[in-house]
Amino acid sequence: MALVVQKYGGSSVADAECVKRVAQRIVATKKAGNDVVVVVSAMGDTTDELIDLAEQVSPLPPGRELDMLLTAGERISMALLAMAIANLGHEARSFTGSQAGVITDDSHGKARIIDVTPGRIRSALDDGSIAIVAGFQGVSQNSKDITTLGRGGSDTTAVALAAALDADVCEIYTDVDGVFTADPRIVPTARRIPSISYEEMMEMAACGAKILHLRCVEYARRYNIPIHVRSSFSQRTGTWIADSTEGSEMEQAIISGVAHDRSEAKVTVVGVPDKVGEAATIFSVLSDAGINLDMIVQNVSAAATGRTDISFTLPATDGQTALTALNKVKERIGFESLQYDDRIGKISLIGAGMRSHPGVTAKFFSAIAEAGVNIEMISTSEIRISVVVSQDDVEAAVTAAHRAFELDADQVEAVVYGGTGR
Amino acid sequence: MALVVQKYGGSSVADAECVKRVAQRIVATKKAGNDVVVVVSAMGDTTDELIDLAEQVSPLPPGRELDMLLTAGERISMALLAMAIANLGHEARSFTGSQAGVITDDSHGKARIIDVTPGRIRSALDDGSIAIVAGFQGVSQNSKDITTLGRGGSDTTAVALAAALDADVCEIYTDVDGVFTADPRIVPTARRIPSISYEEMMEMAACGAKILHLRCVEYARRYNIPIHVRSSFSQRTGTWIADSTEGSEMEQAIISGVAHDRSEAKVTVVGVPDKVGEAATIFSVLSDAGINLDMIVQNVSAAATGRTDISFTLPATDGQTALTALNKVKERIGFESLQYDDRIGKISLIGAGMRSHPGVTAKFFSAIAEAGVNIEMISTSEIRISVVVSQDDVEAAVTAAHRAFELDADQVEAVVYGGTGR
């Protein structure tokens, strides 16, 4: 008998019919002889509707109260799911994040899980019950206030519970059949990736693949929890994410996939005096403003002027904050001007095989060049190469890279089953 | 500085604008130098919408899960209210029933409060914060599951918190200006009752006055918490409910008001053998079926037949259950048949002055007779006389009784401010 943790996103429980269908899948897993713990998100657009209500009441609602409000969403979906399971003749008990023992820090809206004490979940399982847990939420260790985990929160809840319960697998249900070699909306012949290492999946997530959030994969790697990403609308096998050392028998592709991200912006600080410590000042100012930078490029200083340009990318949503913070220290640092461009896109090639295949970089750049796309910035890791291009060139660059590394399938594999959001 | 507990019903927080208006009233109370604890119901039709969702998923949802679902309603309204107060520059913290220390028994859907441990509320007040508490909900002592209190639950939460916190007053806000001598929809010249004793208010509630639920008044009497029922849409003084011995200076009316109730049905068990114990069997069968009876009348046995008829009233919603339970014991008891009538109405005259004014009953019956209304059943207590009439005669009987006891005001006093439900 295995212990299976399943996570269903908002599109999988968008309405009463969806809830009933998911209940059948859960009961089937239980009937197959497994203990089942289910983590569920809020139904469809519930969270957006609650945020809309909050905005009608206050332009800047306190984080504590916004978390209290938003956690009503999973409360509704989890109770309905438990009812639907009961209606199929199986016992199910729903638990809030707090009841499930998801202990977090005090950062409302983006709390981090610091402990999981799933005593009540264990008791429910011991009683032969299916446990339904609200995703995305917890209770803060110090103030005992309700918190939400922010983006990717429900996936992280599922992995954290799987770790705390020593589950055999964490199944993440979504509206596609797994992780693909590229976004099927751009590359219709993208292939489903049958298995991928934590490391590669983390790079995929960090580079814009929206199927799993980075923190969820990080958590799974830390506790070595195998993740199975699959569709709640089909019975097909999806993508297994696991420690690559364990799957030595799996055929290791050189390149796992091509990810893209249109959500970043590029800032260039023009004419920075080429003195020791100037770059450090710039980056500590941004860090103090709570901004996470992605790629950073510094040009060689022009000998004639003694000045250099520093470019970096960051989430476009942080753009205004960054410009304001930098303008405040313009005099102190003595740079000449700021340039801002949010019409960029990042294309990343990810693959553990890159380590031992030195020709990958050249092939990637050639493919992009042949597609007539200009590269603005470059950054690399051991298993990833990323380039920044104009946002208008994203599709051409992704398609070219995908073809160059022979990732295309013979036929269309990807089906998007759901409709709205996740 | 006083400690004020305020309760706002669903119509007072029906939408974002209503929530903001209520927030202003709460802040005004705080600014006047009071500590303020607010109990809030779910917004407008939220509870009905959640029940509708549950019905789409399961015809008979487990009580535990239905309670989990429904408590999402107050979670939303209380968080929004706290945000609206914060937006006015005052700190407010929302608390679920569980967080507020509302401990109940395990009866899902109709839990009874067995203890209130408002440590977190007290801390919030000590910090100068306004505390917002979800009405209608608690946490069960044994299983630690979320429970709901059933009808009148939010009012009861408010009174229970007021008792536990030793509050100076519990203000119940609604969409009318207080308790009236009759339902203003039937008697437009009904008068606002400035003050009324717990005892009389309990009779009013038990006899169909919907403004407060019986259990809430019972709770207030037990702990001697003054209740002020008033409108959230005006600044007028409403009705004070308090111990009558304390208000000896108040002018005591002989009759407080006329209540009516159209929600009951009448069952007649025809031809019951006139033997010792037959009535007891009938009523223990009904009691075992969980039915609360209201009025009971037994006719004098007809000497010729040795048989008698027993009539009783009960909530019409329990009618089918009662008939089924009685039909099962028809052979054993040997009665002849059952008659069922849900087209009845009950008119009750309530007043503590009745004790010392023996002519009240005669005057009441005369007034009803003069209105051409036939009385089907009669029951009395020390401070109440109730009669059952045909449902079509309810308005005529109420109007006649109200006029006979000179309760009419010179002008229309009652204004119904809100729109939908409570």
Distance between the termini of chain A: 31 Å
Overall 3D geometry of chain A? globular
Determine the CATH topology of the domain at 3-244 in chain A.
Carbamate kinase
Spatially, the strands of the biggest sheet of chain A line up as: 3-6-2-1-9-11-12-10
InterPro entries (chains A, B): AceGlu_kinase-like_sf, ACT-like_dom_sf, ACT_Aspartokinase, ACT_dom, AKii-LysC-BS, Asp/Glu/Uridylate_kinase, Asp_kin_monofn, Asp_kinase
Keywords (chains A, B): Amino-acid biosynthesis, ATP-binding, Diaminopimelate biosynthesis, Kinase, Lysine biosynthesis, Nucleotide-binding, Transferase
Protein name (chains A, B): Aspartokinase
Function (chains A, B): Catalyzes the phosphorylation of the beta-carboxyl group of aspartic acid with ATP to yield 4-phospho-L-aspartate, which is involved in the branched biosynthetic pathway leading to the biosynthesis of amino acids lysine, threonine, isoleucine and methionine.
